[in-house]
Amino acid sequence: MWPQRNTPLKTGLLIVAITYLLFNAHSLFNLNWWGEWERLAPGNAFLAFYIYITDIVAAVGIPFRFAAGIIAVGAIIYYFKKALPQTNKLFRILKVIIVFEAIYWLGLVATAGMEIYTLITFPSTSLVAALTTVMSGALPNSIEAIVFPIVLLILAFKLNPNKPSGIPIKWALISGTILVFALWLVNMSLWVSTVSANGWIGVTNYPVNTVSFVLTVFGMLLLSLYTAGYAISYSRTKPQVLSIKTVGVIITALGIYFLWEYLSWIFFGGDYLWSNWYAWFLGHNLDLWILALPLIGIPLLFYKETQAVSSRT
Asked: Is the Cβ–Cβ distance between 255 and 208 less than 8 Å?
């Protein structure tokens, strides 16, 4: 699957890796967050501790993600004009990147723990309020901080050149499904908190917000279901053949969602639109690098089916 010539796919991989590295570099070296527990929660000891512990623990994982970015960029540059490295070497590179990425997500465990603690300690007064709290905090953070990194570590362990290639592909699809589902939950929860704070007028009065709301709540859900459906289909089909075009559709759709949300603010945004949604999506989103993914996904859409990846079972 690694062409000998400089193709759009290889260029896209390089640009995405550089984007991933630059966003992580910004997260690592931008220290504006330091002390925000005092600025954002004056007089509220619990909220200040919440912000403090979640920020500090999450910061521990960022250097690992930054290192993963350096390795990814370096490897792609080195092999840009060469054939794909031998399987053993390729798997070692991928293992390190995946393990470092898993460590980054494990850094969110304090956030998940605090959300669960808050849910138990300050119970909601109604079932609807309780479900809203679970969907907007405890559930998405638990999936990101616990389920997803565990699956990534399993994927890294399954990268064994002596085993059928269908095994790591299956776990890669599972990882992708969980990631898309988690991103849907997290971004949907941002709209839940925005509507709770400002009411529905912030969604219905501005077309750009309406489109964003629909894409987030319904579009990302459909993408999650589509990704899960393909992962299940791949696992059940014999012989297992990976559809490169289907993977391209998933990667492209996910990237376009993030790209739209980012560009819509640049072209249509303003102070009159500012809300919790934009504050968190634009100001605290460490996954904005995903907006570059169409540079990988679109070339995959034009791959010939004869180049689809098959595996021994």
From this structure: no
- CA distance linking residue 263 with residue 265, whole number of Å: 5
Backbone φ and ψ for 47, nearest 5 degrees, come out as -65, -40
Nearest to 187 by CA among 215, 151, 152: 215
φ, ψ of residue 189 in degrees (nearest 5): -65, -30
131 contacts 185 by C-beta, under 8 angstroms: no
What's the pLDDT at 1? Answer: 47
CA distance 181 to 226: 10
Based on C-alpha coordinates, what's the Rg of the chain?
Answer: 20
Q: What is the tens place of the pLDDT at every residue in 15-39?
A: 999 999 999 999 889 888 788 878 8
pLDDT digits (tens, 9 = 90+) for 221-278: 999 999 999 999 998 887 778 899 999 999 999 999 999 999 999 998 888 888 888 8
Q: How far apart are CA 286 and CA 282, in angstroms?
A: 9
Q: For residue 296, which of 241, 265, 259 has the smallest C-alpha distance?
A: 259
As a whole number, mean pLDDT of residues 290-307 equals: 85
- Residues 6 or more apart in contact with residue 169 via CB below 8 angstroms: 234, 240, 242, 309, 311
Give the model's confidence band at 307: pLDDT under 50 very low, under 70 low, under 90 confident, else very high. Answer: very low
Contact 185, 135 (CB under 8 A): yes
- Residue 29 structure tokens: 């070296």
| Partners of 310 in the β-ladder | 241
The residues facing 241 across adjacent strands are 310
| Residues constituting the chain | 313
Distance CA 52, CA 182 (A): 24
